[in-house]
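From the shared-data thread, chain only:
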Amino acid sequence: MALRVLVVKTTSMGDVVHMLPAVEDLLRWHPDAQVDWLVEAPFAAIPALHPGVQRVIPQAWRKWRKKLMERVTWQALGKVRAALREQPYDLVIDAQGLLKSVMWALQAPGLRVGFDRHSIREPLASAFYQRKVAVSRSLQAVERNRRLMAAALGRAFEPEVPAQFGLAIPQEATWRAPVDRYALLIPCASRIEKRWPEPDWLAVGERLKTAGLGLVVLWGSPDEEQLAQRLAGPLGAAVPPF
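Structure, as C-alpha cells:
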C-alpha cells in the first residue's frame, strides 16, 4: 500500500518553496507515495505545480483569525478539518514548527513528526509531535527540511544529492518573456511593512536596464499587481499574468 503523507508548510512563499526539495526526496525514496499539502490559500499555486503532490488543501488562517466570531469562518474551518480527516496518514510532517501549524497537524489522523524543542521556532509546538527530530537551526532552510523528511522516513540524509524543486510548467501556460535576457523583479511581501521602497526598486530596475537586461515584474495578489504595474510603467517592464 502506498505511503500517505501530509506536509504542513503553510506560509510564507519562501518557506513553501524551501520545502519542495524535501518532497522531492520523499518521492525519490517512495515514488508511489501519496502526498497532500496543507498551505495558506495565497501560496497554494506553488505546491500545485509539483506533479508529485496529489492534493493541495488550502486554508486561510491569516484571514480567518480576524473573523473568528463569524459563522462563515467556522464553516470554512470545518471544511478544512473534514478534508484533513478524510483518510488516515502514515506521516503528518509539520515543517513549519509553530503552534498554529501544529494545531492544524493535530486535525489529521497520523503519526505527527516535527523538529525537537531545540530545533524549532516555538518550542512548545514540539510537545505535540510523536516523533521529534533534532536539526541545527544554523542550517539553511532547504537542508533543515530535507533532514526532517529523511528522519521522518527513517532514512539517512544524503547531502551529496543536489536539492531538486520539481516544479513543472503547466501545459496551459502560454506567456513568455518578451526578450531573451531579462531580470525578474519580485517586490512582493506578506506584509506591507516588509516591502522594499518603490523608489529603490525603480533604481535597481534602471541599473539592470543599463546592463542590457529586459525586466519582468512578478506579483501574487491584486494589491501586488497594482504595485507591479506602477513599477513597470517607468521601467518599460513586462508584467505577466498570475
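The chain has eight helices and eight strands.
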